[in-house]
Amino acid sequence: MNEIPQPPSTNPFMSYQPTIEDRRVGFGPRLGAWLLDQIGLWITTTIIVFVVQAMQLPQTAFMAESIKELLTQLKSMGLPRDVLKDIMPYIVPMIYAGLISPIVYWTIEARSGASPGKRILKLRIGREDGAIAQPSVILMRTIIKMSDRILKLIVLIPVPDIIARGVNSASSLVELVLIIGCLVVLSAKKQALHDMIARTAIFRTNEQL
Length: 209
Prior knowledge:
mainly alpha
């Protein structure tokens, strides 16, 4: 059974014992892992774009409106007509891929306890006390972390436009909260908002209580 971490001793004749906060990984290494994961996510997205293009999946009314608004913006920016014609076949696949690929990619972390970027930097997700996290805990953390993306999947369902727009706005708000929540890692506890909710933290793979 894992022991509850004890606070550092105040006895001046004893060696310093690091607190659990000292053992947790802070903003820098986590940012490095995230940057590495962006490479993996880009590769995943590219693959899904070509898969969706081959499947010729339909577009919902909300997607059609979004594409129309996008094309209007691109035209106003002076993008040549030939370029617009070339990218048209890829717009719908890119929307699908942009919504699906993050969930597909971060499922790796949910199943294994570490994303590829974390594994490269020898980091792992653990309970906030440093013990090994159960798969259900890691799954909950991933769902919280990806809640904005999960909400955005509603645009792939043929629902009334007003519902799709409402859910899309809600997902944007959740995304903003999660981005701000990631900066909480800079605090002394070294936990992002999704870590606090799931009661997890990031540790070196050789740090285990």
